[in-house]
Amino acid sequence: MNFKIMLMSAALMTGTMQIHAQGSDAATVVVEKPRADFSSGRLTPESLWSMGRIGNVSSTTDGKVITYAVTYYDIKSNKGNSVIYVKDLQTDKTHAIFNGGNSPVFIKNGKEIAFLSSRNGSSQVWSVGIDGKNARQISHAQKDVEGFLFSPDEKKVILIHSVDNNTVIEKKENDLPLATGMVINDLMYKHWDQYNTSSPHPFIADFDGASNISEGTDMLEGEPFECPMLPFGGVEQLAWSPDSKSIAYTCRKKVGKEYATSTDSDIFLYDLSNKTTKNLCKPSNYAAPSVIYTKTLQDQSVNKTETDCNVGYDQNPQFSPNGRYIAWTSMERDGYESDRTRLCVYDFKTGTKSYVTEVFESGVNEFGWDADNNHIFFSGVWHGQTQLYRTDLKGHVKQLTNDTCDYSLVQVISSKLLLAKRQSMQRADEVYLVNVRKDKGFAHQVTFENKNFYDNLEWGDVKARWVKTVDGKQELCWVIYPPKFDASKKYPALLFCEGGPQSPVSQFWSFRWNMQIMAANDYIVIAPNRRGLPGFGMEWLEAISGDYTGLCMQDYLSAIDDLCKETYVDKERLGAVGASFGGFSVYWLAGNHNKRFKAFIAHDGIYNTQQQYVETEELWFPNWDLKSAPWEKTATGEMQKAYATSPHLYVDKWDTPILCIHGQKDFRIEYTQAESAFMAARMRGIDAQMLLFPDENHWVLKPQNGILWQRTFFRWLNKYLKK
Length: 723
Hints:
CATH architecture of the domain at 458-721: 3-Layer(aba) Sandwich
Number of strands: 40
Structural class: alpha+beta
Strand content: 25-35%
Helix content: 10-25%
Shape: globular
Radius of gyration: 25 Å
Distance between the termini: 37 Å
Strand order of the largest sheet: 33-34-36-35-37-38-39-40
Largest sheet: 8 strands, mixed
Number of helices: 12
CATH topology of the domain at 458-721: Rossmann fold
CATH class of the domain at 458-721: Alpha Beta
Mean pLDDT: 94
């Protein structure tokens, strides 16, 4: 999983600017668009949380009008709210059309916009004219609608509802309604931040073309599986065929221990006429081989099949415009969530599969078909930047953009025009049109949601720095400098440790782990693309598996040591910070840094790898990365290296103040890891503090918690690095 923000001074918001929906259906604003106080001249936690966050974006088929949702947060009420906008790209005019809606898409040839809203108490599908008039609820389902997808002919709609699922947690006894105990019969009884008592299912409903969507029927009725897949899957995991007669969907049809140890999801094709389902990934006679659940699947028979059975993650199907092909992202190996995502194309005419991005030695993110049915556009990371690419069906890949930023592909409007979002370490997401001319992409910004922040605050420069590693390789690092950087001065420096463990240190913008707010507090930050990160070839990516404490840790030390060669870096005032695997990295460095650092911050990190194995929910992670359960010794009777070098085994060498942060609803890495690290540090006589969030998961999502996180973060660093 990819897991990706922090006090300079307490600057309060001085006012608000009201955003009202247009037309007769305008409603009272739940959360108003905040106006930040820019008097300090630099980014603060309060100003960061007052920035608008652009979410879902959609365009009319001709690319002349876009709609998008922007979420605003109010710190005082601790709430957020999304406003839906429409922008006419020909007139350059923007107006708000609905307050309290999200996931907008055009329907009725661009005349109306469908979206989700809970204005009437339940999350349902609504419709509104592009002028903001005639807003109305068009679904009245008994359950909340969690996502929706109209068929191309707009006669049917897929509605996502949660259905009861008592496969691994038994249903409550009727005569004990107040009992809080759960009877658990298998693994994967919890996932991310919730207990698995329900599963999302797609329901097929009829639309009358005007104002009513029917209740719908469960496409997976009686099946105890998820579609879309938890915890992050959305409607992108389903697709309508161009003729509206079939639906492709993503599903991992496993439960319990099988689900917890396998990443094998497939693409299924559901025929609406006869209600039959076909697996497009596997032959009809496929039988999954037996496996040893406590060991990595890397060398087991499931990953040694003679034929291509798509045993890894397969998801996010999209039909070609003519319906002959369907494409999806595909990982090759079972049990390896960070495997390279290839683009698989299935030909309905021949029944064959091909992989059309094999020359691209990194993973495919978003993608979309060209209208010519012979090309596919996609985004992917390479050398710390996510660019836009195009491939033909023969596998010839062409890079289209080369900007210092991260693109995410939103929609293919035509062979010459793409809709995308773009962000960097200096800018949050904005919407762009990318014109494709002669195999080059030229980006044109069309939204300016946070322009006032960029115009009124000082920003630090971001520069690439290539560092020589201990084994003679080159490591790309991003260095973020404070605003008004003066090379004649000395600055404290922070080593940023990335999570994942295999998510890229690209040009990402985060609203918590934000590089600019660290720089705004006069810290120089170095963020290395250490061993294990994508965008540098498969050998670099896979070097971390089974070796959490090897070269990847040396890469961190190489990066901070190289930065310390600069006269403007105060090597006596260094800190290391990180979350998830980055938190693990901090815990390990605490016992292995040879007195380089004066302060540590670990968020949601693994402190004890042996403990982690029996606490986490997605067991494919430790099985692949740590190679086995801790009780499965090597052939020589020794414990696997990842367990034998666990951070908790080096506590006797801890000598540096450490802040431990964790969310109690984090089921990926349990909060007991932070509690254990905090207790160990205090018992060792080391200054330590713990910030515990009872209501947060692997991420901190609530505004006031986010502010508290940032204040605590900088108070701790300033205490030890700004003496």
